[in-house]
Amino acid sequence: MRSTPPGGDPQTPGREPAVEVVGLIKRYGSKTAVDGLDLTVARDSVTAVLGPNGAGKTTTVETCEGYRRPDAGRVRVLGLDPVADAAALRPRIGVMLQSGGVYAGARAEEMLRHTATLHAHPLDVADLIDRLGLGSCGRTPYRRLSGGQQQRLALAMAVVGRPELVFLDEPTAGLDPQARHATWDLVRELRADGVSVVLTTHFMDEAEQLADDVAIIDGGRVIAQGSPEELCKGGAENSLRFTGRPGLDIASLLKALPADSIAAELAAGTYRVNGRIDPQLLATVTSWCAQNGVMPDSIAVERHTLEDVFLELTGKELRA
Amino acid sequence: MTAGTGTFAPRPGAAPLPRMIRAQAALETRMLLRNGEQLLLTVVIPTLLLVLFSAVDIIDTGAGKSVDFLAPGILALAVLSTAFTGQAIATGFERRYGVLKRLGASPLPRWALMTAKTCAVLVTEVLQVVLLTVVAFALGWSPHGNPVSVVLLLLVGTAAFSGLGLLMAGTLKAEATLAAANLVFLLLLVGGGVIVPLAKFPEGAQAVLGLLPISALSDGLRTVLQHGAGVPWGDLGILAVWAVLGLGAAAKFFRWE
């Protein structure tokens, strides 16, 4: 599953992908932040960009937003060059930076109204404020908003101009569960209404919940890309866990299972089988239980989560 | 594009340029006038200095009423405080907090943002000039000269100080800008012929101090308002050179992040 080649999905003729990055290289001094990265984002989809700190997520997104000039490679956003065609592109995209972006003394509602004024057909500001729960702090200066309120304001500013494509850099960092769910709902609604979304996140559940497509970046490259389901069933094998009375004869279970399976008693009365978990294997385990007079109190197939896949691909050591 | 009907169905587009610039200028002006530290610098300090030094004979300002000497200097100080110090500090922190970066991704072009900032500076200066003029008249000021020369000096002076302020804001850290802009304000207040006549300094120093933009502005304004002279081309020339150098360097070296 390493590096599912991007760009495979057919696009509607005459409609370029939302984002098309080929062979992007970006260096800061002697440090290579992005090292030959390929990424294609389909229209009307939500794409989550995952990666450890320093993997190159923000650099990649900011190159798409026109903030960074690529050292090599080709970047097209809605078919346009983010640097050369900036004037044409900017009204069509919405940007949420990782932090900041608002005058310290500006009030929340004032800033959102101002951002709306810069666009030709903005959303209804009052409605957006309501939806993101910013009503109670509409007159509060930005510097006195909580971190979560600042995040929600930045999100509102990114979508108020009715863009075709939004870039959200860690949109739910620092949010409480309610605000997180409000943000998720908004992202789902954006997608349903035909807005393409690119978001970076550290939260695997966020990617699993929202993303049609996940790109895992490490060392400045995309090391895996696919739907959350594809990534999870891909490389890592799954396991089956059941409980019964302690001290069952593992050797006899193994004889019944396919040759490449592994079985173990993890704790007294808890057993795990690793291998190719399919209906046939499940039937084998239950019939073995029946033959041995074992009543499994619980039996469950354990799928690998996106987090397992992520850690497997990017390693478990801490990053700077 | 999918013909969507939902709330968020894309309908992108930039607002007309005049509307964007108007809105941005209004926002920038509100930010300036809402900021307490800025008001201290642009309103309270010049007014206090004008009243204090006119009423109390602290500095020998030569023949005539001291307000006639002081008012032109204080007007120059007002331009310095808004176009240079205030703008440098505000822009430095906008850069630091990603405001300039975020606006860079909006439909507002950069030149339009700078135009809006200039409008905000000019609006603030008009308010300052009105206030200081009223206070000066109350103190017995009797100005002379052609108002057109005065406006010309104020405008070229604003250009010179804006260039220097933006150069500082766009190259230094916000904290360094804050410190340096205040220090420069203080030094120019003392050494730029604002309240202390340049004649008080040693002759060698006078020649150098006379080339400072603040000295050219206060001297030019004084030549017109106190002595009723025509257009002070020498002072205007000095300010124009500073404006070209400052704005040119700012355009070249300004970093948006």
Automatic annotation (TrEMBL), chain A:
<dbReference type="InterPro" id="IPR050763">
    <property type="entry name" value="ABC_transporter_ATP-binding"/>
</dbReference>
<dbReference type="InterPro" id="IPR003593">
    <property type="entry name" value="AAA+_ATPase"/>
</dbReference>
<dbReference type="InterPro" id="IPR027417">
    <property type="entry name" value="P-loop_NTPase"/>
</dbReference>
<feature type="domain" description="ABC transporter">
    <location>
        <begin position="19"/>
        <end position="244"/>
    </location>
</feature>
<dbReference type="InterPro" id="IPR017871">
    <property type="entry name" value="ABC_transporter-like_CS"/>
</dbReference>
<protein>
    <submittedName>
        <fullName>ABC transporter ATP-binding protein</fullName>
    </submittedName>
</protein>
<dbReference type="InterPro" id="IPR003439">
    <property type="entry name" value="ABC_transporter-like_ATP-bd"/>
</dbReference>
<dbReference type="Pfam" id="PF00005">
    <property type="entry name" value="ABC_tran"/>
</dbReference>
<keyword id="KW-0813">Transport</keyword>
<dbReference type="GO" id="GO:0005524">
    <property type="term" value="F:ATP binding"/>
</dbReference>
<keyword id="KW-0046">Antibiotic resistance</keyword>
<keyword id="KW-0547">Nucleotide-binding</keyword>
<keyword id="KW-0067">ATP-binding</keyword>
Automatic annotation (TrEMBL), chain B:
<dbReference type="InterPro" id="IPR013525">
    <property type="entry name" value="ABC2_TM"/>
</dbReference>
<feature type="transmembrane region" description="Helical">
    <location>
        <begin position="71"/>
        <end position="93"/>
    </location>
</feature>
<keyword id="KW-0046">Antibiotic resistance</keyword>
<dbReference type="InterPro" id="IPR000412">
    <property type="entry name" value="ABC_2_transport"/>
</dbReference>
<feature type="transmembrane region" description="Helical">
    <location>
        <begin position="236"/>
        <end position="254"/>
    </location>
</feature>
<feature type="domain" description="ABC transmembrane type-2">
    <location>
        <begin position="33"/>
        <end position="257"/>
    </location>
</feature>
<dbReference type="InterPro" id="IPR051784">
    <property type="entry name" value="Nod_factor_ABC_transporter"/>
</dbReference>
<protein>
    <submittedName>
        <fullName>Transport permease protein</fullName>
    </submittedName>
</protein>
<dbReference type="InterPro" id="IPR047817">
    <property type="entry name" value="ABC2_TM_bact-type"/>
</dbReference>
<feature type="transmembrane region" description="Helical">
    <location>
        <begin position="179"/>
        <end position="199"/>
    </location>
</feature>
<keyword id="KW-1133">Transmembrane helix</keyword>
<keyword id="KW-0812">Transmembrane</keyword>
<feature type="transmembrane region" description="Helical">
    <location>
        <begin position="39"/>
        <end position="59"/>
    </location>
</feature>
<keyword id="KW-0472">Membrane</keyword>
<feature type="transmembrane region" description="Helical">
    <location>
        <begin position="119"/>
        <end position="141"/>
    </location>
</feature>
<feature type="transmembrane region" description="Helical">
    <location>
        <begin position="147"/>
        <end position="167"/>
    </location>
</feature>
<dbReference type="Pfam" id="PF12698">
    <property type="entry name" value="ABC2_membrane_3"/>
</dbReference>
